[in-house]
Amino acid sequence: MDINLIENTEKLSLESKDKKITKREDYLDWREYFMATAFLAAKRSKDPSYQVGACIVNKENKIVGVGYNGMPIGCSDDEFPWGKNTTSKLDSKFLYVCHAEMNAILNKNSSDVKDCTIYVGLFPCNECAKIIIQSGITEVIYFSDEKGHKPKYIASKKMFDAAGVKYWQYIPKNNKIEITFSGADWQNTSSSN
Ligand SMILES: Nc1ccn([C@H]2C[C@H](O)[C@@H](COP(=O)(O)O)O2)c(=O)n1
Ligand SMILES: [Zn+2]
Question: Is the CB–ligand 1 distance for residue 47 below 6 Å?
Fold first, then answer.
C-alpha cells in the first residue's frame, strides 16, 4: 500500500479519537421533565372532559409521587358516572372522582412530601389546595388556570397566599415532546463500538 495513504489514514483515525465528544443539548430540562410526567400521567385518566396529571418532586429533583384524576380504588370506571349535568347530584362524577393532586400525594413513595413542589396540569381546586397545604408542599407549578375565575379556585389562591405556598404558571419551551418506541433515537446516533 502507498506509504502516504497509510500515514494519512493513521492521522485521520488519531484525529477522530482525539475529537472531544460533547453532551447532547436537546435534552429535557428538569421542569419540562416533571411537567411532561404530569401530562403523561393524565393520559391514564378516563374523565371525558378533563384529564389532569400531577407530579410531586423533592428538593433533590426526585419524583416522589404521581397521580391523575380517577375513580377511587374499587369503584369501577365503567359503573361510576362520568356525567356532570345530571338530574340527581348522586349521578354526577363530582361526588366520586379523586383529583390528580390528591392521588399524587396519597401515592407518595417517600415518608412525606414536606418542602416538595407539585407540578399539575390544571390549577388546584380548594379541596386539593387544603390537602397540598396540610401535606407540607410549598410550591405549585401549574400549566393551566382556565378555571381561575371560579370561587373554588379563588379560594385556593387565598389559602395558598395565607399559608405561604408559592404558585406560578409553567410556560413550556416546547409545545410538543415526542416519544417514539419504534426506531428509538440512539439507533441512529450510536457509534459502532
Ligand atoms: N386541579 C384539578 C382540577 C380538576 N381535576 C379533575 C376533576 C375532574 O375529574 C376534572 C374536572 O372536570 P370538570 O369539573 O371541569 O368537568 O378534573 C383535577 O384532578 N385537578
Ligand atoms: Zn382538586
Answer: yes
- Decide: 41 and 53 in contact? Cβ < 8 Å: yes
- Whole-angstrom Cα distance, residue 9 to residue 11? 5
Distance from residue 146's CA to the centre of ligand 2 (Å): 14
Q: Would residue 4 count as lying in a domain?
A: no
Closest ligand 1 atom to 125 CA: 1
Residue 134 resides in a domain: yes
The pick from 92, 99, 119 for probing ligand 1's pocket by mutation, whose C-beta has the most ligand atoms within 8 angstroms, reads 99
Cell representation of residue 31: 421542569
The structure's pTM equals: 0.88
Q: How many domains does the chain have?
A: 1
pLDDT at 15: 57
How far apart are the CA of 50 and the centre of ligand 1, in A?
6
User: What interface predicted TM-score (ipTM) does this complex get?
Assistant: 0.97
